[in-house]
Amino acid sequence: MVPKFRAWDTTNKEIFKDTFAITESGQVVVVDQSSVFVSPDYVFVDNLVIMQSTGLFDRNNKEIFEGDIITNGKDVMCMKRHNTLGFYVEQKGKVEFIADSAVLEEFEEDAKEIADILEIIGNIYENPELLEAIK
After folding, report:
1. According to the model, what pLDDT value does residue 14 have?
2. CATH number at residue 122
3. CB count, 10 Å around CB of 95?
4. Tens-place pLDDT, residues 86-131
5. Which residues are within 8 A (CB) of 111 and not within 5 positions of it... i.e. 6 or more apart?
6. What's a Pfam family in this record (predicted)?
7. What is the mean pLDDT of the chain?
8. Are 65 and 79 spatial neighbours (Cβ–Cβ below 8 Å)?
9. Are residues 38 and 85 in the same domain?
10. I need a labelling partner for 82 at 20 to 30 A (CA). Which of 53, 59, 88, 97 fits?
11. Domain limits at 33?
């Protein structure tokens, strides 16, 4: 799986969903759908919070990224990423890692089960009020 990312623009207070690359100098380069460079100086990394996709999709087929606030219909959780241990959900002070030691086949089965029950209801940047349900 090729890692996918999105970014929160802390200056304009919006999710940056276009395809982008980060240069060695730390500059973000925006790429359009045909992979033609649009603007090599669009925005700098200092203004962005980068969020990685989990590779999972919710029951509405929306891709789940770190920073997303999700629900299973009963509980509200926040998707997070540990730099070495991988993705996990945090709920009321508890954490649960996702497929931290699973083999690929088991992970794919788990992902299908997850997709059937989870739904993205927001994210920590655009909907900070939802974090109260997690604490």
Report:
1. 84
2. 2.30.30.290
3. 13
4. 888 888 878 877 654 444 455 566 666 777 889 999 999 999 999 8
5. 55, 56, 57, 99
6. YopX
7. 77
8. yes
9. no
10. 59
11. 5-48
